[in-house]
Each structure stands twice: as C-alpha cells, then as structure tokens.
Amino acid sequence: MIIMIAAAAENNALGKNNELVWHLPNDFKRFKSLTTGHHIIMGRKTFESFPKPLPNRVHVIITRQENYQPEGCIVVDSIEKAIAACPENDDSYVIGGGEIYNLALPFTDIIELTKVHHSFDADTFFPKINKSEWLLVESEENYKDEKHLYDYTYETYIRK
C-alpha cells in the first residue's frame, strides 16, 4: 500500500524554507515507528533537509537533477518510477514535500495525518483532503504540554 504521512497545520502548512515550523516530539516518534523498515518516497529537497539519511529505511528520492545519486538511495525522476521501486506487497510511505504529496495523492491508499491545531506562515502546503474521496477512520487527540506547544490530532484516512 502507498501511505502518505505528514504533519500539517490548520491552514495545511507543512513548512517554510525547507524546515518544519513546529516541533512535536511525539509526532517524530510516531513517524519513526510507522516508517522504520519501509521504503520512504520523498523529493530531493525533503531528503536534503535531513542531517543524514533516516536509519532503517530505504530512501526513494524523486528529482529532475541529472547525476544526483546520494549513497545508498534510489533516485528516480517521477512518482510512477518511485512507486515502481517499492515492494508491491509492503507498505511504502510518501513523506513529502508539498509537490510530492500532490503528485502522489492519486496513488495513495491511506493518509496518516497529524493535524497541528494552529495556522502558520509557510511556503509549502499539504493538499486539501477531499472528504468525498477520503473517509476518516481513526482520530486521536493530543494536547499541548511542556514539550508540545500546540494541540494536535493523529488522523487516519482511507480512500473511499
């Protein structure tokens, strides 16, 4: 299955200047738990925003740059080739950024969304979820605390 995983604000903001605009440690733990051991599909800018490749995951990077070949990664030039590079009988995760989410949406079976209950100034946005195409099947509210400055909700959507 193709699973899109993201954290987006109330205004669908994802980030600004290739960085997240919030810090939610529990969401990072959830991301790690869900994606570890799987293929993760991302754009080049998302990959380059990491200090190093994420451990225990196969990185599939979509880029138009020729001769771009980070060590140990699969590099392709389209979402179709990225999906084809992933095992058919396993979950693969689309992890961003905004352009990649838009390209991957038609191929996506499940959306794992962390909705951050705040609006942010951003330059990258998550696509709007069309409620006629997606069914919310799980929702878990989380509240701000000493480590989390914002309330947030884990939401799981499946394609209708």
Automatic annotation (TrEMBL):
<dbReference type="InterPro" id="IPR012259">
    <property type="entry name" value="DHFR"/>
</dbReference>
<protein>
    <recommendedName>
        <fullName>Dihydrofolate reductase</fullName>
        <ecNumber>1.5.1.3</ecNumber>
    </recommendedName>
</protein>
<keyword id="KW-0521">NADP</keyword>
<dbReference type="GO" id="GO:0046452">
    <property type="term" value="P:dihydrofolate metabolic process"/>
</dbReference>
<dbReference type="GO" id="GO:0046654">
    <property type="term" value="P:tetrahydrofolate biosynthetic process"/>
</dbReference>
<keyword id="KW-0418">Kinase</keyword>
<keyword id="KW-0554">One-carbon metabolism</keyword>
<dbReference type="GO" id="GO:0006730">
    <property type="term" value="P:one-carbon metabolic process"/>
</dbReference>
<dbReference type="Pfam" id="PF00186">
    <property type="entry name" value="DHFR_1"/>
</dbReference>
<dbReference type="GO" id="GO:0016301">
    <property type="term" value="F:kinase activity"/>
</dbReference>
<feature type="domain" description="DHFR">
    <location>
        <begin position="1"/>
        <end position="159"/>
    </location>
</feature>
<dbReference type="GO" id="GO:0004146">
    <property type="term" value="F:dihydrofolate reductase activity"/>
</dbReference>
<dbReference type="GO" id="GO:0005829">
    <property type="term" value="C:cytosol"/>
</dbReference>
<dbReference type="GO" id="GO:0070401">
    <property type="term" value="F:NADP+ binding"/>
</dbReference>
<keyword id="KW-0560">Oxidoreductase</keyword>
<keyword id="KW-0808">Transferase</keyword>
<comment type="pathway">
    <text>Cofactor biosynthesis; tetrahydrofolate biosynthesis; 5,6,7,8-tetrahydrofolate from 7,8-dihydrofolate: step 1/1.</text>
</comment>
<dbReference type="GO" id="GO:0046655">
    <property type="term" value="P:folic acid metabolic process"/>
</dbReference>
<comment type="function">
    <text>Key enzyme in folate metabolism. Catalyzes an essential reaction for de novo glycine and purine synthesis, and for DNA precursor synthesis.</text>
</comment>
<comment type="similarity">
    <text>Belongs to the dihydrofolate reductase family.</text>
</comment>
<dbReference type="InterPro" id="IPR024072">
    <property type="entry name" value="DHFR-like_dom_sf"/>
</dbReference>
<dbReference type="InterPro" id="IPR001796">
    <property type="entry name" value="DHFR_dom"/>
</dbReference>
